[in-house]
Specification:
With 293 residues, the chain is an alpha/beta fold. It is built from six helices and 13 strands. Bound molecules: fe (ii) ion.
Length: 293
């Protein structure tokens, strides 16, 4: 039995610098997952992620195309990330032993929609084709490795209230803003092999049109944990003036590839010295505290 420790970066929107790299060196997670919207198409953060000395998997979000419908900006981001990017594909990280499958890159949620930039880079892709690409990547994964899905926007089906993990909160009526191709792929993958975790961002935790925070974790009937990591801004300062850096944190217990479970999931805010200053616990396996989807 082993424990895999995953640090997750929710939508940075530019909030990534040397202090994050230094923190990761101190925290030493086994894997770093990055859910996209690094910036508005600037090359700095993809280049810095590429230089990190730990296993990294990343998927790009809608903001990563900049305001460039030609797709050239998106293409440059993809080129800079190189093998780190796992959109519509499989990235196997060995060591430590994790298969990461990427969902549709560049999504802005809302069911199924391809931006002009995504169409320019990847061509026209139907909902069914997208779901099949994700499912095929999971099928190609080494069955001996635990499998995690990495997406920019989460799947449809996690609730239609504004405060649900993918609920539309910026316009009335609230609705389910999750991606339908990803939901389809999740169902197909679950029929084939265990899927302990789906990680995504895009739908920021702080709700617009009213106050409050989004529900950022739920568990479905198959036992898959869905984690929205989009704490935006992820750089902040507490009332005492201390700098804060956000990471979502997940610990996977791997008994064997057929028996992988999320032991722990939380949002964590660290000081620059690596001290854990605030933690929002979302899921602990021994306690039935996580809400069903
Ligand atoms: Fe986004």
């Amino acid at each position: 039995m082993s424990i895999l420790r995953l640090a997750v970066v929710g939508d940075p929107h530019g909030a990534w610098d040397g202090s994050d790299a230094a923190l990761l060196q101190h925290l030493a997670p086994d894997v770093l997952l990055v859910v996209g919207d690094l910036s508005d198409g600037q090359p700095r953060i993809p280049a810095e992620l590429r230089r990190l000395p730990l296993p990294v998997a990343c998927i790009l979000g809608n903001h990563d195309a900049g305001k460039d419908p030609s797709g050239r900006t998106l293409e440059r981001q993809l080129d800079t990330l190189g093998e780190l990017h796992c959109g519509w594909g499989l990235r196997q990280l060995v060591p430590p032993g994790l298969a990461v499958v990427g969902a549709r890159p560049g999504t802005a949620g809302g069911g199924f929609h391809l931006s002009r930039a995504v169409r320019a880079v990847f061509g026209p892709v139907t909902l069914e084709e997208s779901a099949e690409r994700i499912t095929a990547a999971a099928r190609a994964a080494d069955p001996a490795l635990p499998l995690v899905l990495l997406a920019h926007c989460g799947p449809a089906g996690l609730g239609s209230a504004a405060g649900d993990p993918c609920g539309r909160d910026w316009k009335n009526p609230a609705c389910d803003w999750g991606d339908q191709d990803l939901a389809l792929a999740v169902r197909r993958i679950q029929a084939q092999r265990p899927l302990p975790l789906v990680v995504f961002g895009h739908m920021h935790h702080q709700l617009r049109r009213g106050s409050g925070q989004r529900r950022s974790l739920c568990v479905d009937r198959a036992g898959t944990v869905y984690l929205n990591a989009a704490s935006v801004p992820r750089h902040g300062r507490d009332p005492a003036g201390r700098e804060l850096r956000h990471f979502s944190w997940v610990e996977l217990e791997v008994a064997d590839p057929q028996a992988v479970r999320v032991l722990h999931a939380s949002h964590r805010w660290y000081g620059l010295n690596g001290r854990l200053l605030y933690e929002e616990s979302l899921h602990r396996c021994s306690l039935a505290t996580s809400l069903p989807c």
